[in-house]
Amino acid sequence: MSSGPVTYLPLDTDDQCQRCKEKRAVLLSRKEKFCPDCFVFFMRGKQRKLMLDERYKVKYGQVADRLGVQKVLLPLSYGASSLVLLDMVASLLQEQNLAHKGKQGFELVVVHLKEPNLSGNASDNSETDSDFASGGKKFKELALQYSPVNIEYHEVDIEGAVLTAAMKITVNNQFGVIALPSSSDEAEKRTIGDALRACATRSLQEDLLSLMKNELIRGLSLKTGCKTIIYGHSMTRLANEVISLTVKGRGLTIHESVINKSIEYNQQELQVIFPLRDILKAEVIAILLFNEALQKFLLPDAKPGSRLAKNMTVRDLTTQYFDNLDATGYASTASTVVKTAEKLAGPKEPQQGTCDVCGSSIHHQPQKWLSDITVSIAAPLTTEDEEEYARQYGTSEGSAEGKELRVCYGCTVTLAGSGKQFEWPMRATAQEIIDEFVLTDDEDEGP
Amino acid sequence: MSSSADLPRKDRKIKPSALCELCHGRKAVMKRPKNLQKLCKECFFLVFETEIHNTITSAKLFQKGEKVAIGASGGKDSTVLASILKTLNERYEYGLELVLLSIDEGIKGYRDDSLATVKRNQQQYEMELEIVSYKELYDWLMDEIVSCAGIRSSCTYCGVLRRQALDRGAAKLGIHHVVTGHNADDMAETVLMNILRGDTARLENSCSILTQSSGSPIKRSKPFKYSYQKEIVLYAHYKKLDYFSTECTYAPEAFRGTARELLKGLGAIRPSCIMDIIYSGEHFVLAQKKKVTKSYKNGRDKKAATAEDEQEINPDGSVALKTTKRDGNTCEKCGYITSNKICKACVLLAGLEASRAKASVDGSEEGAAKLGKTLELLSF
Ligand SMILES: [Zn+2]
Ligand SMILES: [Zn+2]
Ligand SMILES: [Zn+2]
Ligand SMILES: [Zn+2]
Ligand SMILES: [Zn+2]
Q: One Pfam family, short name please (chain A) (predicted)?
């Protein structure tokens, strides 16, 4: 069916599965022919290998006392990868639960961030997203498959979240990021969705939204007592992320964005794991294809192909790029990119602080670098006419005065491109959203 | 604003929104590719030149009294480079002695026209000009190389041979510093390629502005490192610079072609992306390795090792040869500085000689095809 990393065999094939040597093979992956069961089993092995730490195993005695009840947060977008990860992890818990008389290696917490509709039309995406995530009804149905495992579920609506700590952010000619508090009554009515829609390009919207989501997920893990976050990113998606981060001037954060590691967040240690990091996107899709019960929960994503070229985002383009590489015989590129990223470390220079917008650590002031190579000086005016124009112009615009923020390179560039007087909340807003929307007691359903 | 009486009398009044965003006094004529700022010609010239000046001074690229050779191909990058260096040298009193250094590869039509351009540049910029030919250096014309090795591998040649030719030409003139017209787009492409290929050896230093091969007395630098290709074109256009428009006619290798396309698409939705990629590239740090790498084992210092690595990236971006490294010494065949027993140029030329001999014996295409194959193996 495709020349990519997974080839589906014809339905009338006589080829046998090379693993069980019993059932008929349905696909060719990594030079081996698999039946559906053996393929899924093989892929699950890859996920389990990445969650071998004892904190995710069923614990008894001293180990149990030392580690306590572990809670693991899984952000679920209802896309193929996060659904497959949920299925793998919940099945693992189900096995543990049944084999150890109700004991599990960890408690699973699932969070769904309802994405704002960025097409400009506020009522546009309501049927797609809210159908799938309407106060957790869909999720309850999904979770039934893994009974008796109990899964805690939360939804956060990014669209409707009110911009409380909103700042009008202006980037001056020297790339200083200046925050001007917006008048309070004006800000009260504005939501994150509004702010994002005011951003100049879809590409910049995507960047800001992903920062917001990242911050929300970290905050939610603290709020729900989770010391581990597991992301459904496939190897292809991670490779994509490495290129996207590089392209957005956020290459410095690659070492903490795509690599399994423990990070410090608000003085707490957080494990971040990508259990599908050894599985290609084409393989994730194959797994989903063999699981009809799971498929019906898939939220169809908007096809970037139907978009105008200028409305594409960085991720649309890099996704397309890796899809094309798969089709043209360069499928190993994703694995090369991820392996390369694994060799990267954080900056050598001491940390100077954290970014007021995205929270990443700052080791260099990007302002000098930027203003050296993007100069804003005017050539002298030579005629009276020119000087008159400049005088007239001068009266029509005042210069911005406000508090200068500490902002990383990636955020500075994104804000500079977002337009004059762009309004964006400070980092603290994520915490407020979490406090407003997430109830800590398990039985609550959210607002 | 209404058409008030105190405005200068003109045929047509310029609307405030049509004014240059920097001086507010002249009409904007262009959108700057780097940040889409609307600028007048004068302000564009000034910011473009100042940015290059900033690049030069913050990297401390030049010393007073230094003699510097500009690698001149007659193409737009090197023509703009010559023009700008002349301007900056006078404006900021760098005290440089600038010389045009041109390579005659022996490509009929292409080279004849471009050399004519360089000769006009010599008059226009009042600089000394030195032309070094492949024929006198290597006893081969590029056209002969292409007919012998095939079009596909010719970029390998034009990279390795041209680089060495520039170094040798400079040495001949007693010059220790060659500047080339490599621009920000080339830099960004190299950063992406290094990640996509997993070339960790080059990842950390792929954005160095100044490089020097180990043992070589010749420094090379790239004052256009942060200059966008499109802005170089605009600068040449508005300054009405005299350049020859054809670039290397040999297409890039297929995989690099995909990266170039990606970069083009990204540039359309995020104009800053070229700078952003360079920023990322400049700050890549490799985690401490567990085992000692090859280049450290020889006891060479890190700087020399990475400079040598850099040498393998060809000017036009093709894949270069990878060979085992030795301490910096001279080529057994030609005496050129190399870290190998025989320098890359001599390796390539020996291959060519062999295939020329074979081709003349059996009079077939076989020799050329076989050499093409060998080269592909060498390149990866
Ligand atoms: Zn089987
Ligand atoms: Zn930031
Ligand atoms: Zn101007
Ligand atoms: Zn070439
Ligand atoms: Zn030699």
A: CTU2
- All structural domains of chain B with their residue ranges: 61-282, 287-322, 324-380
Write the class of the CATH domain B61-282: alpha beta
Give chain B's end-to-end CA distance (angstroms, integer): 64
pLDDT tens digits, A100-149: 999 999 999 999 998 887 765 444 444 445 555 566 888 999 999 999 99
What is the Cα–Cα distance from B83 to B247, expressed in whole angstroms? 19
* DSSP-assigned states of every residue in B257-282: HHHHHHHHHHHHH-TTHHHHHHHHHH
Instruction: Return d(Cα B277, Cα A380) in angstroms, integer.
Output: 33
Q: How far apart are CA B5 and CA B9, in angstroms?
A: 9
DSSP state of A11: T
Chain B partners of A309 at a C-beta cutoff of 8 Å? 265, 268-269
Cα separation, A64 vs B201, whole angstroms: 44
A329 vs B: CB within 8 A: no
Specify the CATH superfamily of domain A6-437.
Answer: HUPs (3.40.50.620)
> Comparing C-alpha atoms, which of B290, B174, B212, B227 is closest to residue B50?
B227
pLDDT at B239: 94
What's the B149 CA to ligand 2 centre distance in angstroms? 50
d(CA B83, CA B312): 28
What are the residue boundaries of the structural domains of chain A, listed by start? Answer: 6-437
Provide, for chain B, the percentages of residues in helix, strand and coil under a 3-state DSSP scheme, each rounded to the nearest 5.
Answer: 50, 10, 40
Contact criterion met (CB below 8 Å) for A72 and A107: yes
Beta strand B67-71 pairing with B97-104:
parallel
The beta-strand segments (E) located in A282-384 are: 344-345, 353-354, 361-362
Reported pTM? 0.86
Question: ω before A148 within 30° of 0 (cis)?
Answer: yes
Ligand nearest to the CA of A38: 1
Phi, psi of B70 (to 5 degrees): -95, 120
pLDDT band at A188 (very low <50, low <70, confident <90, very high): low
A337 CB neighbours in chain B (<8 A) are: 195-196, 198
Tell me the residues of chain A between 360 and 379 that have a Cβ less than 8 Å away from chain B.
364, 366, 369-370, 372-379
Q: A333: which 2 tokens? A: 């590129």
What gap in Å lies between CA A138 and CA A73, rounded to an integer?
Answer: 18
B5 interface with A at CB cutoff 8 Å: no
A416 and B35: CB-CB below 8 Å?
Answer: yes
Q: What is the pLDDT of residues B243-253, one digit of tens each?
A: 876 555 555 67
Tens-of-pLDDT digits for all 380 residues of chain B? 444 445 555 556 888 889 999 999 999 999 999 998 999 999 999 999 999 999 999 999 999 999 999 998 888 888 999 999 999 999 999 999 999 998 887 777 666 778 888 888 888 889 999 888 888 888 877 777 777 776 656 666 766 777 788 888 888 889 999 999 999 999 999 999 999 999 888 888 888 888 876 667 789 999 999 999 999 999 999 999 988 765 555 556 778 888 999 999 999 999 999 999 999 999 999 987 654 444 333 433 433 333 333 333 333 333 333 333 444 577 888 777 777 788 888 888 888 787 777 655 554 444 445 544 444 444 33
Rounded to 5 degrees, φ, ψ at B65 are 85, -5
Alpha-carbon distance of B13 to B28, in angstroms, equals 13
Whole-angstrom CA distances from A61 to A55, A58, A71, A103, B330 are: 13, 11, 18, 13, 69
| Helix (DSSP H) and strand (DSSP E) numbers for chain A | 18, 16
Query: Which residues 6+ apart lie within 8 Å of A45 measured at CB?
Result: none
Give B19 Cα–ligand 3 centroid separation in angstroms: 8
Q: Which of residues 290-309 of A touch B (CB under 8 A)?
A: 309
Q: Is A260 on the interface with B (CB under 8 A)?
A: no
